[in-house]
Structures are given as structure tokens and as C-alpha cells.
Amino acid sequence: MILEMKVPSPGESIKEVEIATWLVKEGDYVEKDQAIAEVDSDKATLELPAEASGIISLKAEEGDTVAVGAIVCHIDTDAAKPSAAAPVAEVKKEEKAVEVKKEEVKVAAPVAPTSYASGTPSPAARKILDEKNIQPSTIVGTGKDGRITKDDAINAVPSMGTPTGGNRGSERTKLSMLRRKVAERLVAAKNDTAMLTTFNEVNMTPINTLRNEYKDAFKAKHGGLGLGYMSFFTKAVTRALELFPDVNSMMDGDYKVAYDFADISIAVSGPKGLMVPVVRNAENLSFRGIEAEIKRLAIKARDGQITVDDMTGGTFTITNGGVFGSMLSTPIINPPQSGILGMHNIIERPIAVNGKVEIHPMMYVALSYDHRIIDGRESVGFLVAVKEALENPVELLCDGNPKKAFEL
For the chain, does the N or the C end have fewer beta carbons within 10 angstroms? Predict the structure, then answer.
């Protein structure tokens, strides 16, 4: 019996996926539920499991974009499993990645020297070359009579000047569907919103003091969970969203949609790029609850097991560039949300305290917001409320009782 395997729907809004990597080869024997491919959607990378055991025949190539419900392979379920002397030939992800890179390098289009004969670009090719600022005289056309085709223009690489020695290699690789979608959303956020950024700074001494006093007991009590900065920032944000609800709203045409809950998107770096899983109803979670949920989502993102549902929704985003050493940035809004808080690295700096100069661990924080829906008063007030909560965590985040807040 020949089983036709079709692309399952990763989510309600997803209509197509891209075959990122085949984890098996043509003619391999696969076991039921064995991961046979990685597929990219515009929201996540997912593994495709075999629906039955048998010999596989691939019907799509790596890099192909296929519709949900399309056939990507056949499995001959009547085929006998190979003996132990002929083990299943399973391609490791790392090896496959190398093969893909080599193939992609092969198809890279080198810049033709200017001594080559000039061709005439088609109208579509000329438009692309103009956008790339590439002269047609530097391209060798593959069309009839040397005509420069659209594909020639797409594959053309701008000149990098006259070489003077040293290694000047390059490679051309196609972005994953997830990376392309992230790029589109970021550009759309810049073009479609009236984005502004306001800044402040936070004295982290009070939080450091609390963490140093309670982190060991917190870890022992809650099964190894760490008492990190993110739970303090998440609770400070949910408090500020209650005080300034416009920051927790979105534009929908001519309407404003305000939410009475706080689903906080936490930007994390995964193996396939930036991912933004959501901590649901963060306003109702304790420090332990927030830390546990962030850890669960971070592990799923790291292991490539994050789902579309994990990243769907969100009313506000927190991103922490400080883990990479960023001192200051202007984070880009995660549409359709209206605000994003940027955390940064902690540096000891001299500041004035009660008329005296003291050295404290300081962090710059940034709020980027959509000025169409959030006024300056709300944006500045929101960021000040975050600062106040972080600099007075015992009273404003722990209700005066850290042991109870940390469930010790």
C-alpha cells in the first residue's frame, strides 16, 4: 500500500509551509512517528513525523514552498524493513545542514567582470538591477542573444570593488520562511505605525538585594527554578499596564481594542531566529508561576518544539538585549501590539543619591510605542511606573512581604 503524506495544518491562519530540511533520504526505511523533515511556517519551525513505517519516496525538494494539504512524500507500507546488516540510513540534521550550504554555494551567481559583453535587461530585470544599484554591463545575460533575464538580475551580486588581496569569499543562502516573515513584520511595524521610543534608567540595587537574599531558598523550594530578573520586570509591566491601559491596547482600523488581561510576549533567541512566545494572563501569575512558564517556553524554543499557539496573541512584549551586551536600543514594536519594553545590560555607574555620589548597578530601559494610540503622557507614565516598581519591589511587587510573594 502506498501512503500519501500531506502537509498538516500548523495553525488556523497558515496556508503554506516551506520544506526546510529533509531528515531522511530517498529510499530510506522510516519508522512510524519518526521525524522525516523540518518545515518552516511564517511563525515557527515544526517537525514532520512519518504517518506509517515503510520505504519513503520524496515528492518535494528542500526549499520548496508547498500548500497545506499538499503531498510531500509517499510511504510504501508493504516494504520489508531492512536487516540489521543494512541499517536505516538516517541523515543527521548537522550533516544535512552542511549539504544544503554546499548546494547553496554552488548556485551563487558570481559578479561578472566588466570586460564581459553587455546584455540588454528585460524591463523586470532592469527594475531589479536599479533597486540593487547594479550596472547591466557587469552582468552576463543567460537569455537569448545574451539578454539579461529577471533571474539573472535576482541572482546578481553588487560589485565589492577591486580586490587587493586576502580572502574575499562569499556565499548566498536563502532565508527561512520564519526569518523572511519576521523581516516583513519588522519593516511593516516601522512603516505602518507612528513609532516613538522613550527612555529611562533603573537602579537595580533593590532587586539585586532581594535576589541575593531569597534566590537560594526560592530555588530549593520550587524545584530548581531560578529567581531571575524577568519575573520582576514582568510583574512591573503588568502593574504598569493596569495603571496605563492604553499601552495594553491595539489599533483595529478606526477602532481601539483594549484588553483587561496581560498576555506578555517574551522575545527569545531560538536556533531558527527570534521567537516571541506568550505568557498568558501574566497579571495573575506569581513570581514562581512566571519563572516556570518562561522556563517552559524557553526550553521549547531552544529544542525547536515551540508551536504556533505558543506564539499566537500577546498584548505587550518584553525583549532583553542586555543578555547580548546591549547598553541601549530602540526596540521595534511587535505588531499588532502597541508597545514593547526593551531591557539592557546592567553596568555599575556613579549616580547622585541624596546629594552624594554613589556607585550602583544601573540599567537603561526603553519603551517603543505607537503614538497613534498612546500619547506621551501615557508612555512616559508607563515607563516611570515600571521604574518605580523595580526600584521599590518589596512594597510595589511583593505587597510588603517577599517571603509570601516568593511562596517560601
Answer: N
